[in-house]
Design brief:
OB fold (Dihydrolipoamide Acetyltransferase, E2P); 26% strand; Phenylalanyl-tRNA Synthetase, Chain B, domain 1; Phenylalanyl-tRNA Synthetase, Chain B, domain 3; 25% helix
Length: 800
């Protein structure tokens, strides 16, 4: 906001410009600056013409001896007819630049050296007259800077924060300056001199949208003579950043800047039916606004209408059909209180932001509506010679939101601010803002909020007001006293960070994909209808309409990446993502959000010379990655082959168990799923629920010195039932193998000729070793017999 200081000084006593700008900046306003309005005359001096003689070689030139205040007389050649001895004049010495950029240098004119220039008002940018040099007041001090004689106006530029719409006016800034520096607040006269017939005889007002228009006041002014505004009014508006239009529009803009209340003037003769209605726009209605644009109105738009049509977009811009022109003789002045949300939505909907909408969006003074209408009528009578009709025409909608009293606990305020401001001082600061305070028996301040402070609703708001008026720079700096405890990440987050490191070390690349998928993506996973992951939670405002659901598994996102790479001839991928998924809960408004790892492997079609003719199934590769991941995290996993995960191949999948708890699944992807995502290369997928894994305590790492004694290896092959998980046999072997058994490895699985139907042959390699001596065969044989008996008794295993 731009505001001439000369205008502001009419309302309140002002300190010097620099302290004013600094204090406003420190009390919460943005980008505060004071700039001069007019030419820079600081480089010019006041001079005295001591002698003035005719130039020896030119009839129209004079040779003057000028004292510029430094004790020396300078010879200056001047062509002005009104120059004479004894005058005080404006002098530009050599090296000085004039406001138009002209640099004055010593020069020879018709044989006489001129050491400067005696200036006219036009040459200094102070007027258009050029009848001769500018003759100064005889009392001007010789040698003084010319800027002391022509101080010019200064402009206060202030950035208004969104919550301080009350400060976007001369009145608002005057209240701030008075609160900061004291002094009286001087308000201009508002009551007009009323004459003639009553305004209610000329027009009637009704509100059909009481939720959006809380108060509407109208004044009628007759006998206007529309024309240009006086020069002081035009200069004042232009200094504030508004263009002068005519005396009627300029009066409404003056009140807008003075009071912070938007005003609009309608040509009363153009109002059909002499009826003003505040209503919602009807479907299909249009309005040509003052900027010349024809706008199609939305049924949610609030409009000002006459008996037949819209004549203004309420609170934003007037209509061209009722515009004030030179032929206008009588006007209707509108001053209203609109709901901020209604104006904000309309301005955004039409991309039309104005000085009026700026203020209405932030809230205006609900008690200043009639005052602003009266002030406008008074100005129109002064500027346009109008006659103000008696009385106002008013209508009211729903009551505007009230400002209930706020109780400020000063002790709590001081604890928040780290200050020791007395209750009396806090009350004095608030009363400077016209917030009436009374102290209760408990020492709490009961504060009555003025009607123009729409931003004050909570005790914390008043705490901020006290702080900024007291001075943020006066609040002492203190270090907080608190027990510092080391930060601890949640167990799931620790596992996630370690998992990223482990998977990257295994050669996988991490992805970060968007958590949104389409309904079709989830359907293509062939999930069971009863599976809660089949249908994700729908977003109310999706980024893309096709991706309108939160993903319930990471697989669709990874398959999309694989498809995109496949379309660019990149077949082989090893990627993973660690992120939360969103699984709906029956009867709950919010989903479960388990932290999940998803890893995807794809195998390319190209073969290298060193590749085997038949590469091993991807199942074992993805299982190895999952096993090494879980081992690195400190868990011993059991992989139960088989399962019912619908998006995995039924013959190449396994469930991942840790300590008897299911934490995930892995396997090769079902061919139909691959075809649905347009992939024609083999792929395998593993998924681990880190939240479920975090619920299981990891095993403690144990370290021991490697034995220097020789190890004894024995192979053991047994026949077991085909559906028997081999992992359970490994656990049994470790349990019964004794303390000298250091490792067990499954190295072969066979079924076919020589093996009974329904059974398979599995072979294990057992390694025995001691740290203190060499084992003998008898000890190892005893351990092997214990293992064979245990496998036979528990699993019905037969030694091959």
């Amino acid at each position: 906001m731009r505001l001439p200081l000369s205008w502001l000084s009419e309302w309140v006593d002002l300190p010097p410009a620099d302290p004013l700008a600094e204090r406003l900046l420190l009390c919460g306003f943005e980008d505060v600056a004071v700039t001069s309005l007019g030419p820079d005359l600081s480089g010019l001096r006041v001079g005295a013409v001591v002698r003035c003689e005719r130039h020896p070689n030119a009839d129209k030139l004079s040779v003057c001896a000028v004292d510029a205040g430094d004790g020396a007389l300078r010879t200056i050649v001047c062509g002005a007819p009104n120059v004479a001895a004894g005058q005080k004049v404006a002098v530009a010495l050599p090296g000085t630049s004039l406001p138009d950029g002209t640099r004055i240098e010593k020069a020879k004119l018709r044989g006489v050296v001129s050491e400067g220039m005696i200036c006219s008002r036009r040459e200094l940018g102070l007027g258009d007259d050029h009848q001769g040099i500018w003759v100064l007041d005889p009392g001007a001090r010789v040698g003084a800077s010319l800027a002391e004689l022509v101080p010019g106006d200064a402009i206060l530029e202030v950035g208004i924060t969104p919550n301080r719409g009350d400060a976007a006016s001369v009145l608002g800034m005057a209240r701030e300056v008075r609160a900061l520096f004291g002094g009286p607040l001087r308000r201009p006269e508002t009551q007009p001199d009323e004459r003639g017939a009553r305004a209610s005889d000329a027009v009637r007002v009704s509100i059909d949208a009481p939720d959006a228009c809380w108060h509407y006041a109208a004044r009628v002014v007759r006998g206007l003579r529309v024309g240009a505004s006086p020069e002081p009014v035009r200069r004042r508006l232009e200094a504030a950043g508004l263009r002068s239009i005519n005396n009627v529009v300029d009066a409404t803009n003056l009140v807008l800047l003075e009071q912070g209340q938007p005003i609009h003037a309608f040509d009363l003769a153009k109002l059909r039916g002499r009826h003003v209605r505040v209503r919602r726009a009807a479907a299909g209605e249009t309005l040509r606004t003052l900027d010349g644009e024809l706008r199609r109105l939305d049924p949610e738009d609030l409009v000002i209408a006459d008996a037949e049509r819209p004549i203004a977009l309420a609170g934003v811009m007037g209509g061209a059909d009722t515009e004030v022109t030179e032929a206008t003789a009588e006007v209707l002045i509108e001053s209203a209180h609109f709901a901020p949300s209604a104006i904000r939505r309309a301005a955004r909907r039409h991309g039309l932001h104005s000085e009026a909408s700026y203020r209405f969006e932030r809230g205006v003074d609900r008690e200043g509506i009639t005052r602003a209408a009266d002030r406008t009528a008074r100005l129109l009578a002064e500027l346009a010679g109008g006659e103000v009709a008696a009385g106002r025409v008013e209508a009211r909608g729903h009551a505007a939101p009230a400002h209930p009293p706020i109780e400020l606990d000063v002790a709590r305020m001081n604890r928040l601010l780290g200050t020791q401001i007395p209750t009396e001082e806090a009350a004095r600061l608030l009363e400077g803002l016209e917030i009436r305070c009374s102290e209760t028996a408990s020492g709490v301040l009961r504060c009555e909020i003025p009607s123009w402070r729409n931003d004050l609703e909570l005790p914390q708001d008043l705490t901020e007001e006290v702080a900024r008026l007291y001075g943020y720079e006066r609040i002492p700096t203190t270090l907080p006293i608190a027990a510092l405890a080391p930060a601890r990440l949640p167990a799931g987050q620790v596992l996630a960070d370690r998992s990223r490191t482990l998977l990257a070390g295994l050669g996988l690349s991490e992805l970060m994909t968007m958590p949104f998928v389409s309904r079709a993506d989830l359907a293509q996973l062939r999930l069971d209808p009863a599976d809660p992951r089949r249908e994700g939670m729908r977003l109310l405002n999706p980024v893309q309409e096709q991706d309108s659901q939160l993903r319930t598994t990471l697989l669709p996102s990874l398959l999309r990446v694989a498809r995109q790479n496949r379309s660019r001839q990149v077949d082989q991928l090893a990627v993973f993502e660690v992120c939360r998924v969103f699984v709906p809960r029956v009867g709950a408004p919010l989903p479960d959000e388990p932290l999940t790892i998803g890893a995807l492997l794809t195998r390319g079609r190209d073969r290298h010379l060193w590749d085997p003719p038949e590469p091993p199934p991807l199942f074992f590769e993805v299982r190895g990655i999952a096993e090494r991941l879980l081992n690195g995290l400190g868990y011993e996993a059991c992989f139960r082959h088989g399962g019912s995960v619908s998006h995995l191949h039924p013959g190449a999948q396994a469930e991942i168990d840790v300590a008897g708890r299911r934490v995930g699944s892995l396997g090769e992807l079902h061919p139909e799923v691959l075809r649905s995502f347009e992939l024609d290369v083999p792929a395998a997928y593993a998924e681990v629920d880190l939240d479920a894994l975090a619920a299981v305590p990891p095993r403690r790492a144990e370290f021991r010195e490697p034995s220097r004694e020789p190890a004894i290896r024995r192979d053991l092959a047994v026949l077991i039932a085909r559906e028997q998980p081999a992992g359970e046999l490994v656990e049994a072997i470790r349990k019964h193998g004794g303390a000298d058994l250091v490792s067990v490895e499954l190295f072969d699985r066979y079924e076919g000729r020589g093996v009974p139907e329904g059974r398979v042959s599995v072979a294990f390699r057992l390694v025995f070793q001691r740290a203190d001596r060499t084992l003998v065969d008898a000890e190892v044989n005893d351990a092997m017999q214990r293992v064979v008996r245990a496998l036979a008794q528990r699993f019905g295993a037969e030694l091959r």
